[in-house]
């Protein structure tokens, strides 16, 4: 266990249908680096996770409803995927606002799989370089992004990966990039 992110607080924006490993593994890496995380969602209570979008994979307790969350209370944002999760987030004005404000504030944002859909809806991808799950790449290009097929892409403070098979590299990049971005100058 390291403490590079001790004292830092990361929001994880997710809702029902989140791909379990895409929330669980990066959150574990962040905790291992000393960060505190809060699960921010569309509703209170719990969210239902999935495995490969189909199979139920347990639940996660929600820490805060996105309508009540403020970007100023967090140092960074994690947007996990799964198809249903970001598809719901991108239709919720509070979730879209929350993601947009992170990008506008220049705070680190990490996203995997279908997670960038929320950033596309927020209008924050024009001119950005990123990767994603193959089925949403056209949507991201239509939002003005340059999309590539790579394991991990770092564009400034935006970190992206394609999917669950990239989680080891993604988790390493998230901890490394969040640490670099959040250290005092």
TrEMBL record:
| InterPro entries membership | C56_PfpI-like, Class_I_gatase-like, DJ-1/PfpI
* Keyword annotations: Glutamine amidotransferase, Transferase
- Keyword presence, Transferase: yes
UniProt keyword annotation of Transferase present: yes
Ranges for domain DJ-1/PfpI: 8-176
Instruction: Output the Gene Ontology terms for molecular function.
Output: transferase activity
Q: Which PANTHER family does its entry note?
A: DJ-1 PROTEIN, PROTEINASE
- Family classification: Belongs to the peptidase C56 family.
The record ties this protein, via NCBIfam families, to: PfpI
- UniProt-recorded name of the protein: Type 1 glutamine amidotransferase
This chain's source organism reads: Streptomyces diacarni
């Amino acid at each position: 266990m390291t403490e590079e992110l001790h004292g830092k607080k990361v929001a994880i924006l997710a809702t029902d249908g989140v791909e379990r490993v895409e929330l669980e593994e990066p959150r574990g890496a962040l905790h291992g680096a000393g960060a505190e995380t809060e699960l921010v969602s569309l509703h209170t209570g719990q969210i239902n996770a999935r495995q490969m979008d189909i199979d139920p994979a347990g639940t996660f307790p929600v820490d805060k409803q996105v309508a009540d969350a403020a970007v100023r209370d967090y140092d960074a944002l994690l947007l996990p995927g799964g198809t249903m999760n970001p598809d719901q987030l991108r239709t919720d004005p509070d979730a879209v606002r929350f993601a947009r404000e992170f990008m506008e504030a220049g705070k680190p944002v990490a996203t995997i799989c279908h997670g960038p859909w929320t950033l596309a809806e927020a209008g924050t991808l024009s001119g950005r370089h990123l990767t994603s799950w193959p089925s949403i790449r056209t949507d991201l290009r239509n939002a003005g992004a340059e999309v590539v097929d790579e394991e991990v892409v770092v564009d400034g403070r935006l970190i992206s990966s394609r999917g669950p098979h990239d989680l080891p590299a993604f988790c390493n990049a998230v901890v490394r990039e969040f640490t670099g971005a959040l250290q005092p100058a």
